[in-house]
Amino acid sequence: MSARLVALRIDALDPAASARFWAELFDWPEPRVDGDGSATLVPPDDTGFDLVFVAAATPKREKNQMHFDVTSESQEAQDQQVAHALALGGRHIDVGQLPEELHVVLADPEGDEFCVVEPGNSFLADCGRIGALSSDGTQAEGYFWAAALDWPLVWDQDEETAVRSPAGGPKITWGGPPIDERHEPNRWRLALEVEGAGADALRAETARLVALGARVVDDSASAPVLASPDGNLFHLSAGR
Q1: Element (H, E) at 86
Q2: CA separation for the pair 31, 134 (Å, rounded)
Q3: pTM for this model (two decimals)
Q4: What is the Cα–Cα distance from 36 to 73, expressed in whole angstroms?
Q5: Cβ distance 37 to 80 under 8 Å?
Q6: Helices 199-212 and 139-149 sit at what angle, rounded to 10 degrees?
Q7: Which Pfam families match (predicted)?
Q8: Which of 174, 200, 220 is the last residue of a domain?
Q9: Calpha distance 17→40 (Å, rounded)
Q10: Where in the chain does DSSP place strands (E)?
C-alpha cells in the first residue's frame, strides 16, 4: 500500500496569521492553533489534504518551489478574488510573468506566491477553488510522485507532468526545465502518512519510496524526512 498525501506543510514566521490569511481567502473555517504555535486548516471541500503552518526560523528569501493556482469562474470573480487577497494583506509581485498572460500573480503577507487564474482555463476546468499545486520540477519528479502516491499521470507532454488523486481535488504539476537553482530548503513541503500503523509499516514505506528514487535526509524513527529525485524535502509519518 502506498502512503497518502495528508498535508501541505508551510513554513511561516507567524503560522497563525498565515493560516488566517488562507482561511479567509478561501472562505474556509478558522484554523486550529496548537500549543507549539503551529496552525492547521482543514478544507471543507475536495482539496484532499490539510494545510499545516509551522514556525520558520528565517524569513522567505527566494521564490517557492510550489504555489497554488486559484481558479476563477468569471472575469468578475477573478477581479474580486484579487481585490479580496489584497485587502487581506496580499500584494502583486513580479516573477517574470509576461504581459499577455491572463493570470494574476500575488503573494501572501509572508511572500508566498500564488496565481489567480483566468476564467476559461481549460487545464483546470474541472478543478475546484484550488486548481493546482503548481511546482517547479523535472519530468522525473512527476513520475516519482505518480508512483509514490499511486495517482495517475493526467499530463505528460514536453517534459511537463501532472498527477491528480482519483478522488479529484487539485492537480499537482511540474513545469519541466529550466529548473530554478535553490539556495534554501523548501518552505512548502508535502507530508505523507503510511497506510498502516507502527514502525514496520513506516520502514517498509520508506524503503519503497527510496526504491522509487527518494533518499532519506533524516532517519527519525517516528517521522523521517526524505528528498524526492529533484531534492525537494517531504515528510513521512505512521498512520494511526
Answers
A1: helix 75-87
A2: 23
A3: 0.95
A4: 38
A5: no
A6: 150
A7: Glyoxalase_6
A8: 174
A9: 11
A10: 4-12, 32-33, 39-41, 50-55, 66-70, 91-92, 104-107, 113-116, 130-135, 153-157, 160-164, 171-174, 188-193, 215-218, 225-227, 233-237
- Domains of the chain: total: 2
State the chain's mean pLDDT as an integer: 94
The yes-or-no verdict on residue 120 having pLDDT over 80 is yes
Find cell 481567502 and name the residue: 25
Q: Are 89 and 115 members of one domain?
A: yes
Closest CA to 8 of 174, 212, 232, 220: 232
Does 182 reside within a domain?
A: no
Same domain, 44 and 123: yes
| Rg, the chain, Cα only | 17
Residue 15 is given by DSSP the state H
Each residue of 152-192: pLDDT tens digit?
A: 999 999 999 999 999 999 999 999 998 988 888 899 999 99
Tell me which amino acid residue 196 is. G
Instruction: Pull the grid cell for residue 140.
Output: 522525473
Which CATH number do you get for residue 156?
3.10.180.10
| Same domain assignment for residues 123 and 217 | no
Tell me which residue range forms the domain holding 127.
4-174
Q: In the β-sheet with 50-55, what is the strand arrangement from edge to edge?
A: 32-33, 39-41, 50-55, 4-12, 188-193, 233-237, 225-227, 215-218
Q: What b/e readout covers 150-162, taking b as 16+ CB neighbours within 10 angstroms?
A: ebeeeeeeeebbb
Let me know: does 205 contact 3? Beta carbons within 8 Å.
yes
CA dihedral of 127, 133, 137, 141, whole degrees rounded to 10: -70
C-alpha cell at 108: 501572501
Exposed / middle / buried, residue 222 (Cβ in 10 Å: 0-12, 13-18, 19+): exposed
